[in-house]
What does this fold into?
Amino acid sequence: MLSRFRSTDGTEIAYLDEGSGPLVVLLHGLGSEHRENWVDSGVVAGLTRAGRRVVAPDSRGHGRSAKPRDQADYGTGALVGDLRALLDHLGVSEARSVDVVGYSMGSIVASRWVPADDRARSLVLAGVGDHIADGSRASITGIVGTALLADDPDTIGFAPLREVRASLLAKGNDRLALAALDLAGVDDPTPEHLAGMGVPTLVLAGADDDLVGSPHDLAARIPGATVATIPGDHLTAVVSAEFPVAVCDFIASVTPTPSTPSEEPTP
It folds into this structure.
């Protein structure tokens, strides 16, 4: 069952809230939503079994959240603001109390949010590599959004872009809302963001993901970061059996859940 709250600008955000224990926030990718990336993949089940409370919002423009169609309602500032507002809404104030996991767009947003919010305790940047840091993504910003704005997909001259559009719409996305988000752009982290991440970080990518650049080169920009690769490409790694295992194992290594006290005190 989803809960809802209104972000600082009044936009309604839907979020899954399951389990109990140390808090983990999960951030999905562009054109996805919390169920596809986190429930269907087994991540939510794995974390709740491990004694974690899981909060997984649908980003504005996605899933059950509001889908404004104005570019002014999007951009990195809006998406980061939603996450800060969500923790405020949940009453989370303790420093270093939240583990954060992102996939693709969710990782990019997390990389901007975590260095500026002392409530973050650890970070998994999944589905990304050095392309979010080397400037190469600038040339493709807004391409998907422009394709989504086309009333007739046959006017899109690049066949792979038509396929991306068809895939996004097949999931039930609002094409004009998603176009507004893509055209507004989600800013990549700056070198200062990466150097100042300030929490244990795992960069996690599919071994065959040729879209994102080197996860090792990205990790090299983040002090103390580690790297793991799992089977799959950008679309299939998130549904591999190894994906929830890698996420849960990293979080457990950083923030073990409190052990249950024994019934009989030790002499």
In short: Strands lie at 2-6, 12-18, 23-27, 53-57, 98-103, 120-126, 201-206, 226-230.
